[in-house]
Amino acid sequence: MSDYCMKVSGRMRRSTDEPWSDVVCFVSYGDAQFHRKIVEDSFQYHLRLDMDEMNRRHSDHFIAPHNVARAILLYHYFRNWHYFFEDDHWDYVRQQELPDREPDAEGEDYKLWINPSKNKSV
């Protein structure tokens, strides 16, 4: 399954009144097309992008690994736990660099791990 392994750094918070907390996430998945619907939803509802424009000029963005990883995190973890999440950096990692513990969430074509920090950000 793990054709793609990503490390995604960002920030999270439970409400708009709370300060942001730093978070480092790991995602592994196999097939970008399998996740296309949630990538489309994240573009439309989270990033508020023009979907006609995205389909016409940037169709490759729907399968870009960092966009797939972000959508998996949003739709299979952060929304379920009622957190706001913003990503700000991503890197490819080797499978050996994924956390050595049970995933925080997993499904048919993904696994993810969340490592919150005690550091607050602006």
Query: Could you tell me the mean pLDDT?
Result: 84
Given the C-alpha coordinates, what overall shape results?
A: globular
The termini sit apart by: 36 Å
Low-confidence stretches: none
Indicate how many domains the architecture comprises.
1
For the sheet with most strands, the description reads: 5 strands, antiparallel
Biggest β-sheet: strands ordered side by side in the sheet:
3-1-2-5-4
- Could you give the count of β-strands? 5
Question: In a few lines, what is going on in this structure?
Answer:
A five-stranded antiparallel beta sheet has the order 3-1-2-5-4, with helices on one face. The chain has helices at residues 36-46, 51-57, 65-78; strands at residues 4-13, 20-29, 84-92, 105-107, 110-121. The protein is an alpha+beta fold and 122 residues long.
Descriptive labels:
alpha+beta; globular; 122 residues; 26% helix
Describe this structure in words.
The chain has one domain (4-121). It is built from 3 helices and 5 strands. The chain is globular and about 40 Å long. It has helices spanning 36-46, 51-57, 65-78; strands at 4-13, 20-29, 84-92, 105-107, 110-121. The model has no long low-confidence stretch (mean pLDDT 84). It is 26% helix and 36% strand. The chain has 122 residues and is of the alpha+beta class. The protein has a 5-stranded antiparallel sheet, covered by helices on one side.
Set out the fold topology.
Layout: E1 4-13, E2 20-29, H1 36-46, H2 51-57, H3 65-78, E3 84-92, E4 105-107, E5 110-121
Helix pairs in contact: 1-3
